[in-house]
Amino acid sequence: MIGLCQKGSCRKLIGHTGKCDPWPTNCWSFLEEKDKKKLSKAGYATPRGGKKGAYQNHVYRNNKVIIPFEKINVIDTSNYEDGYIVRLYPDQAFISSGILSEINLPDGEPLVIGENAFVLYRSHQSFDEFPPLDEWSVRHLEDKNGNIVEKRSSEVLDKGHYILRLPKVGGGKKIIKNEVIEGPPQGIFAPEYANKETNFLSQASLAWQIIHTSSSPYTASQALHLKLILDECSLSDGVHYNYLGMMKGNITTCPLCLKRISYDELHSHINLENEESLLNSGLIVDGTNRSTTVNLFHMIPLEYERLHHNHIYVSWGHATCNTKLGQRRCYSLAEVKEMDIKVAKLIGDSIETFGWISDDDKMIRSPNGAVWIRISEELYIERD
């Protein structure tokens, strides 16, 4: 009889060899290499502009996070099982040149630069206005013997007080100040965090959705181990996926447009010819059109206040739909139907209902798949 080991929290199969493991990635070992790579990438934190913010890039989500000083009052630091460090800009760290601010975290713990915080210099002007204290040093990595090393590991510690990400000033033959990059990346973008358990289950859910794409080269019999793991989360029966629009029947769909996702779209490059609303967008300018047609899709946008990268809300969706949705929640048709707020057109004396609107007035869905998204907020003009 096939089943999970379940010794402790082991998710290997009964009778397995080797050590028990609660996160056995061999449950999707039958996937082609290109699918494994896409799945692995979904488990990475990949912030845009990571270098200038001292963020780590292409590392797993279960890593230390950087908490911006301006967000410390809205973040629950207990969410970050793998640790955190607070980033301050110079004008946040100093009252004036040479005089530090005295700051406590919401729980009363003091903020100590060099221990649970660091200063990020991003301009030559801020460096000149609030220079590092004489006793400070640039952040670096040390092993247990105090030797400076280049690569992170479980036995390596961060030391030092500040990071330099100073851009070049001037251009051509007239360079006024050179670019200065000193200090290693300090952590990942906090909204992208997920602990190891959540990250594994998210990848398992995404693997299941790959298997169920249209024209998938896989069969259900190959995924019995994966199914057993998803059974623990009540996901393999498809009810959850269908409710949120991630699947229709047993076929994976884009949660926004509800069109079936074909297996080839996971690896084909995006084509904007049929996307009239995006032809003049920044997708072409910044090179995002080199993206694959289908990418990681979050039903609830990532934010500092709560962690939303988890197996309940991750799916695959069209890159163009991701762009249209932006930082908005993707409500499914089932969800807005449950809210039971219908929208209608008033044509003369007749009223014609055509869909349901979310209770935050940000999304309308019709029963046939059309979607309307609110793209701006109300303007409230004060009158004399």
List the helices and strands and how they pair.
Blueprint: H1 33-42, E1 44-45, E2 59-60, E3 65-68, E4 84-88, H2 90-93, E5 94-96, E6 99-100, E7 117-121, H3 124-129, E8 140-142, E9 148-149, E10 157-159, E11 162-166, E12 169-171, E13 174-177, E14 180-182, E15 188-189, H4 196-211, H5 224-231, H6 239-243, E16 247-248, E17 251-252, H7 282-285, E18 294-298, E19 314-318, H8 319-325, H9 333-339, E20 342-347, E21 350-357, E22 363-365, E23 371-373
Parallel strand pairs: 3-4, 3-15, 4-7, 7-11
Antiparallel strand pairs: 1-2, 5-6, 8-9, 8-10, 11-14, 12-13, 16-17, 18-19, 20-21, 21-22, 22-23
Protein name: BstXI restriction endonuclease
GO molecular function, one term: endonuclease activity
Keywords: Endonuclease, Hydrolase, Nuclease
- The coarse silhouette is globular
Low-confidence stretches: 278-288
Instruction: Please tell me how large the radius of gyration is.
Output: 25 Å
Strand adjacency order, main sheet = 14-11-7-4-3-15
Beta-strand content bin: 15-25%
Protein name: BstXI restriction endonuclease
Keywords: Endonuclease, Hydrolase, Nuclease
Organism: Vibrio cholerae
GO molecular function, one term: endonuclease activity
Can you put this structure into words, describing what you see?
- This is BstXI restriction endonuclease.
- It comes from Vibrio cholerae.
- One of its GO terms (molecular function) is endonuclease activity.
- Keywords: Endonuclease, Hydrolase, Nuclease.
- The protein is α+β, with helices and mostly antiparallel strands.
- The protein has three domains: 25-41 and 195-325, no CATH class; 47-192, no CATH class; 333-373, no CATH class.
- 17% of the residues lie in helices and 21% in strands.
- The protein has nine helices and 23 strands.
- The chain has helices at residues 33-42, 90-93, 124-129, 196-211, 224-231, 239-243, 282-285, 319-325, 333-339; strands at residues 44-45, 59-60, 65-68, 84-88, 94-96, 99-100, 117-121, 140-142, 148-149, 157-159, 162-166, 169-171, 174-177, 180-182, 188-189, 247-248, 251-252, 294-298, 314-318, 342-347, 350-357, 363-365, 371-373.
- The termini are far apart.
- Mean pLDDT is 91; it is low at 278-288.
